[in-house]
Design brief:
single chain; 162 residues; mainly alpha; two-stranded antiparallel sheet; elongated
Amino acid sequence: MDTAVHNTPLKPDPRAPRELVKSTAFLLKRLGWACKDRGYQAFEVIGSSPLHYGVLAVLDEGARETQATIADALGFDRSALVGLLDDLEEHGLVERRRDPADRRRHLVSLTPAGEKVLAEHRAIAGQLDAEILAPLEPKERVELHRLLVKLAVHHDKRYAEG
């Protein structure tokens, strides 16, 4: 009998436990973490973040321009949004001005430089989608998106279309 084989310590199995792999919620959580990590890494390359992308995307729709409505649309704490807007304003991507109808509020708008950076953000987001969804066929990607929207709307009405 070859003792060298029997004295070799076993390497731990790196696979996730089967019980957890059977859990859809667990898989969504793990995939969410991976998406978040990859997203932050990808946006850091241009000195930005997915949070900045969200703010710019909301402003591009034009209908929500107060700090409160931006925060509410994204599910951000209103005080945390102020720091993000400070960053974006410092880089010339957004402009804040007092609301003439209510001097207590600030209106936020996208600048031409912000529109340009938003286009870069969209390209990064598209690359991330392509990378993360690479194993899926086009029809599967559409179906996955449809199901995710259905789940998102069930838990948070902000994701409803229209």
